[in-house]
Amino acid sequence: MGAKMVPFLRARGGGDSHATPGGVYEELDREFGFNFDPCPLDPNGGLPLFGPDGLEASWSGRRVFCNPPYSNIGVWLRKAREAEIAVFLLPARTDTSWWHDYALSADEIRFIRGRLRFGEAKSGAPFPSVVVIYGNNQNGGAS
To answer: In what order do the strands lie in the sheet with 108-111?
Structure first.
């Protein structure tokens, strides 16, 4: 996956949220055709555009891309089965409760080789990343 940055897709700062590398988003969008991001941030101020409302909104029939705040991943993964398809970019924290409670029940898990660069970081993240997919069948479409 490429590392080209697209700041308007994610403009997160701090330790909780991380700007999605544009090449990662673009590659996944080509494959899944997203039409909803429940937790994007304002590219100018880094403030939530939907915030908790992204959790309250219906995901039914939507093709969701979600790079959630990393401090509370489980609440976002709980919504995954509402969507036609839900694709999450997450830290590969296989020792956490959200991993065992939600991620392991995904239809597909893709570990990303190497470390992604988030935002304007000069080096890779201090954690490995993973793409967790709900609703994807063996033929590449939604189930």
So the answer is: 63-66, 85-91, 129-134, 108-111
Residue with tokens 């479409």: 141
- pLDDT tens digits, residue range 99-119? 999 999 999 999 988 877 777
Digit-coded pLDDT (tens) for 4-36: 333 223 333 445 666 777 688 889 999 999 998
Instruction: Let me know: does 132 contact 90? Beta carbons within 8 Å.
Output: yes
* pTM summary value: 0.78
The length of the chain is 143
Angstrom distance (rounded) from CA 86 to CA 94: 19
Structure-token match 């590449």, residue found = 140
SS3 of the chain: CCCCCCCCCCCCCCCCCCCCCHHHHHHHHHHHCCCECCCCECCCCCCECCCCHHHHCCCECCEEEECCCCCCHHHHHCCHHHECEEEEEEECCCCCHHHHHCHHHCCEEEECCCCCCCCCCCCCCCCCEEEEEECECCCCCEC
